[in-house]
Amino acid sequence: MDTDVAQGYLGKRRDALHATLFREDELGIVIRGHIHVEHELIDFIRMMISPPEILSALDLDYKDKCKLASALGLHKALQAPLKFAGSYRNRFAHNLGVDITQQDADNFHSALLLKGREYFEHSYHMVYPCSTKRNDFWEIKQIEPRNRIVSYFLLLWGGLAVATLEAKTKIEGVKELSPGSIPAGGVVDEGVTQ
Q1: Could you tell me if residue 27 is inside a domain?
Q2: Which of 24, 30, 57, 61 is the most buried (most CB within 10 A)?
Q3: Dihedral angle of Cα 18, 20, 82, 43, to the nearest 10 degrees
Q4: Cα–Cα distance between 134 and 94 in angstroms, integer?
Q5: pLDDT tens per residue, range 140-188
Q6: How many domains does the structure of the chain reveal?
């Protein structure tokens, strides 16, 4: 896949996620990080089903969307971190006074590595083609947990965004993707915007 095409497609979406996560408090990091992840999950599913509008009629919760995406061919590397992200979001959404801990960061790290080191390295290179710090994200245990969680949401989002891009390229035979071909923020589900 052409790196310039991929960068054009991924760049605007990546920048929107960065702008969101790096200005948030801990609750915002987890909730908004998850919103962006779920948005990419929904885009992947819509790319893989026909007609895409059927997804809204199915009225699936997050767990069922993860199962459907897996059945539709979503890479196995994404399964454990998607499950972790959903549980983590629920913990923050339904409890007062929850903080990001070292154990949370370690658990997210483990979920990403379970079946995905090579996959996430590939997607990282697609999302950050100009980065000079390749693969340092696996060795960031000395960084504060909050920043690790941000990094891991970025990795998970990147894996999903690349999966959606690759599905779009394969299914539609797209030679070039414009940055606006799928909206950066846009509609998460019918009538619900980010």
Answers
A1: yes
A2: 30
A3: -90
A4: 36
A5: 778 899 999 999 999 999 999 999 999 888 887 754 443 333 333 332 3
A6: 1
